[in-house]
C-alpha cells in the first residue's frame, strides 16, 4: 500500500475517522498500532512475525538493559544489527531460487523471505529506543508505546528516523481541536506534488540512465540526466518525508524535518546537515560520537568519517555501488575539513555561488551510484560523461520539459527571501490549490518511492 | 497579518484547484487532444504513432514492425500517403492487429518478419481497436501541451520534399566506419540466447489469420525482412524465426522484393540500421511500391 494509492487514502480516512471519537480516546495508541500493523501486513503479511520478533525482542532487551545497561544494551543492539544484516545482506551469499539451501525447512523459509520493507528504518528506531531510554534511566515504557514508536505507519517504511527521546514523550491523549489542519495539509500537498509532478515525471526521463539505455545517450544528455536524477531523488524522498510529517500531524505527532534545502549547501558537511537529516543525526549520535567523533585528533576524525559514511552507504544496500557512494562522500568530507575555516573567511556572493555549484555537481555525480547499483554500469556511465558520444541516433530529450518538471525544486531552493515569503503568504492557499490541481493533471506514471527499497 | 482561519484557507485552496481543473476541462473540450504531446519514453512514442493512425485519414500504405522498421522514417519515402506504424520495443503483430481492427484499411500493408519473438501488446490492441481510437481524456496535461505547442512550432514535422536534398547529401557520404564490435558482440550473444520458437509459431499463425482477414476486405499484405549484420543473420533467434515464417509463407509473391547493396549498410548498435542505411533500404522499398499499388 503506497502513499499514492487510493487504498492508502481510504485507509487513512478510516483510521483518522475513528481515532478522535471520544469513545475511543483511551484506545488511541492501540488503534494506531493496530492500523500500523494492518498497513505493514497489507503488503507483506508473511513478515509480520518478523516485525513482532523485532519489537518484542527489543522490548525485552530494553527491560533488561534498564537493570544492567553495560551487558544488555550491547546485546540488544547486536540483536537488531543481526536482524538487519541477515535480511539485508543474505542475498549476497545465497540464491533464493535454488532448490536446497540448508536442507532444514524453517531455515530455508527464513533464507527465502524477501527484504522486509522498512527494516533499515525500524532497526534504527529500535537502537535509538535502547540507547535513549537506558541513558535516561527512567521507568520502562509500556509495550504498546514501544510498539507505536517503532511501527507508527507514516514513518514505518522510510522514516523520518525519529529518536525515541523525541517521540515517546508525545504519546499522550490527542484531541481533534488541537490538529494543525492547515500545516498538515501544506505538508501533505507539498509532498504529493513533489512526488507526483516532479519525481514521477522526471523518472520517465531518467529511465534513460538505466543499462543499456544510457549507452545511446549523447554526452550532454548524460550530464543533464545526472542533474535531473538529483532533482528526482530529492523530490521523491522529500515528498515522502513531507507526506509522513503531514500525516503524523493529523494524528497529533510531530516527526523531525528530514530535508532543509540540501542543494544550497556550500560544503559537503553542510549538505549532510540538510539532506536526510534524521539519518545524519542518527549516524552522528549513535555511531560517529561513540567512535570518538573528532575528539582524538585529525587522523582519527578522518577515519571515523570514512567509517560512518561507508557504513551509511552500506545501510542503503548490499552492493559495491552503495559502499563507494558512502566512501566517496566520506572522502569529500575528509578533504574539505581542513579547508572549511579558510573558505569561510571569503565573503563573496560569487564565491558562495561557486561553492554551491561545486557541491551540487559532486553530489549529483555521486547519485549515479544510487541510480545504477551495478558498479560496472555506474563506472561506465560516469566515464561516458567525459567522452564524446558515438551514437548517431540518440534519444531525444525535451529540455523544456526537463526544466518545467524540475522547476519546483529549483524555485524551492533558490527563490526565497523575506519579500518572496510575504507575497507567498498572501497567495498561499491559492498556490497550494494550484499544486493540488497540477499534481492531478500532470502526474507522471506511477512509480514506487525510491527509498522504499532501503 | 491577520491569521487566516483554517476554513477560509481550505476554501481558497479548493476554489483555486477547482478553477484550474475546470479551465483545463473546458480547454480540452474546446481544443481537443489533437496536439502531439512530446514523447519522453518509448511507450509515449508508441502512443503518438497509434494516436496519429487512429485520428488521421487512413493512408494508402502502412508498415508494421518492430524497432528495426521504426528506423525507416516516413520522410525517407517519396511515396505519398505512407505511414510507418512500427512500434519500438513492440511486435509487428500489435500494429497488424490494430490496422486490421479499423473500419477502413490501407491499400497495402507491409509486415516486418524479423522480430516475431514478442507477443502482441493486448492492451494497446484493445485501446486502439475501438471505434474512433483511444478514449479522449477529460483533461489534457497543461505542461506537456504547452511544451507540445512550443516543440511543434519550433520543429514542425518535415515531409519528404523538405528533406530530399539532405538525404541525397547523406547518401553521397561513404558508409560509416564506426567500430560497433562491442555492441554487435553483445547483440549476437542475446540473439543466440533466445529461442523464439513458441512465440514465433503463435505470431506467424496470427499473422496468417490477419492477412486472410484484411485481404478478404480488399487490402493486400506483403511480408518483408530487414537485413541484419552477417553474424546476426546466422544467430539462433534469427535462423529459427526465418525458418518458421518462410515455412508458413513459402510463396515468393507474398514477399516484398527489396534490392539494395548490402555492403553499403551499417548497424551502429549492432542490430538497427544507421540513418544512411535506413535511407538506402527505405528508398529500395520506395522503388517497389508503384508497381505494387498499380497491380491491385
Instruction: Give the terminus-to-terminus CA distance of chain B.
Output: 80 Å
Mind telling me the C-alpha Rg of chain B?
Answer: 23 Å
Overall pLDDT confidence of chain A: 90
Strand order of the largest sheet of chain B: 2-1-3-4
Helix amount of chain A: 55-70%
**Total separate domains of chain A:** 2
Q: CATH topology of the domain at 60-121 and 157-294 in chain B, which one?
A: Rossmann fold
Number of strands of chain B: 4
Structural class of chain A: mainly alpha
User: What share of residues are in beta strands of chain A?
Assistant: under 5%
* Contiguous runs where pLDDT drops below 50 for at least 5 residues of chain B: none
Gross morphology of chain B is: globular
Indicate the percent of residues in helices of chain B.
40-55%
- Which chain pair has the greatest contact? A-B, 33 and 42 residues
Per DSSP, the total helix count of chain A is: 21
How many β strands of chain A by DSSP?
0
CATH hierarchy class name of the domain at 60-121 and 157-294 in chain B: Alpha Beta
Strand content of chain B: 5-15%
Query: What is the succession of H and E elements of chain A?
Result: HHHHHHHHHHHHHHHHHHHHH
Largest sheet of chain A: none
SSE topology sketch:
The complex is a heterodimer of chains A (454) and B (296).
Chain A lengths: L5 H14 L8 H16 L4 H20 L1 H21 L15 H8 L6 H18 L6 H9 L1 H4 L7 H4 L13 H26 L12 H32 L17 H4 L5 H12 L8 H20 L3 H17 L3 H5 L4 H18 L1 H4 L3 H10 L14 H16 L3 H24 L13
Chain B lengths: L5 H26 L10 H14 L5 E4 L2 H4 L11 E3 L7 H9 L7 E5 L9 H7 L13 H13 L5 H13 L8 H13 L3 H20 L3 E5 L5 H4 L2 H13 L26 H20 L2
Parallel strand pairs in B: 1-2, 1-3, 3-4
Record keyword descriptors for this entry:
heterodimer; A: 454 residues; mainly alpha; 2 domains; 21 helices; B: 296 residues; Rossmann fold; four-stranded parallel beta sheet; 4 strands
